[in-house]
Amino acid sequence: MPVYEAVIGLEVHAQLRTESKLFCACSTRFGQEPNTNVCPVCTGMPGTLPVLNARAVELAATMALAVGCRVNNRNVFARKNYFYPDLPLGYQISQFDLPLAEGGAVTIDAGAGPRTVGITRIHMENDAGKSIHSQADNASFVDLNRAGTPLIEIVSEPDMRSPEEAEAYLRALHGIVTWLGICDGNMEEGSFRCDANVSIRPVGQQELGTRTELKNMNSFRNVRRAIAYEIARQEDLLADGGAVVQQTRLFDADKGVTHAMRGKEEAHDYRYYPDPDLLPVEIPQAMIDALGAALPELPAARRARFETALGLPAEAAAALTAERALSDYFEAAVAAYAEPRKVANWMLSEMLRRLNDTGATVADCALAPEGFAAIVRMVEQGAVSQKSGRDMFAALFSAGGDPEAYAREHGLAQVSDSGALEAAVDAVLAANPAEVEAYRAGKTKLMGFFVGQIMRATKGQANAKLLNEILAARLG
Known about the structure:
Elements: E1 4-15, H1 54-66, E2 70-71, E3 74-75, E4 77-81, E5 91-95, E6 101-102, E7 105-109, E8 114-126, E9 130-134, E10 139-143, E11 150-156, H2 163-180, E12 192-202, E13 212-215, H3 220-239, E14 247-252, E15 257-263, E16 273-274, E17 281-282, H4 285-293, H5 299-308, H6 314-320, H7 324-336, H8 340-358, H9 369-380, H10 386-399, H11 403-409, H12 418-431, H13 433-440, H14 447-457, H15 464-475
Parallel strand pairs: 13-14
Antiparallel strand pairs: 1-11, 1-12, 2-6, 3-17, 4-5, 4-16, 6-8, 7-8, 8-11, 9-10, 12-13, 14-15
Helix pairs in contact: 2-3, 5-6, 7-9, 9-10, 12-14, 12-15, 14-15
């Protein structure tokens, strides 16, 4: 029985973050009442003409440059013909022979070392509407608010060999589009989604197997699950002497299975031809150069710099570059207190815990990065205790303010004066002679008792490290 390998390619759709649609002035805002963000252009009324959104072109080209694509100075919109109730034009405006950009690559690491996934092309297109099927009403409804929303489709080469690699690639793209701010990346709302092309072939064979296209995957986890199921399904089919049929399949997240939706279309089935209502898009080289020069430091480059220049462990660097706002906040905090590892430890514990527990974002944090750095510095220098530092962060996260002033107002200053601590230690030991004798006889667990008594006497403000040193010396 042959051993098979998977061959996987992804078609990723990202909704461009524009105020208006691709070919009209209707709003792209999500969650509005059905069929309110519509006009004669996006609903396909006879006699209407599309007008291209220039901002969408800029955002699309920015993404193409970020992944190393060649942006074509001349690209053409085409009509992709098919019928569906939520497609009011009767065709989708997309690109075919002359797309926005070609080439490019993304480097991923799914645990087996770095791997490069090629990008075939990136093209612009408008989205369809949404069909809503109601069993209660025994009817179907169409909401055209999304119709005409600007998208880019990022088509990969079939370079991925496992569900884990596909997930890593999708996460990498998601990280880039959100880092650049060209897409909000919300998978539940459909502004970032993908289809997967999956086939298998005997290991060593160059010829590709028959592929299926998987749809209806609305999370990173479900992309991995759907692909894993489809690989196993195709292997079982071939092992039983059957043949894989080229088709589109839907993923059922509740059951964890895929099922056939329709036969897979080829390009000729859509009868592409240039859209006669839209002129070819001419992008000046000067504009492409300017967009390239304006690109920020991207997640992979910043992650590498955090490891090499700041000395952060790989996992910490990856976590701190998962989101641009978090990464920028960390950098600003390190600029205020040049102890990257200590600041990183607090970011990955206190900050991320707060964000995860409350559902807040970094933008919701009223404490300036400099204030966050001040809390870390005060704890590290012994000005306040670790607990007081955590309490200060919790209080100032939403309120903002000066941590040093807060510590003074709330009496959080840590007692680090050795003379004052020695006096407190001596007083507690003198008041508990039986416990001192028991400790010296071998009951060393009583150390916690002494620490607790002294902390109570100093209202919890004793410097724990200095306190333990003095206690150890006194108890012998």
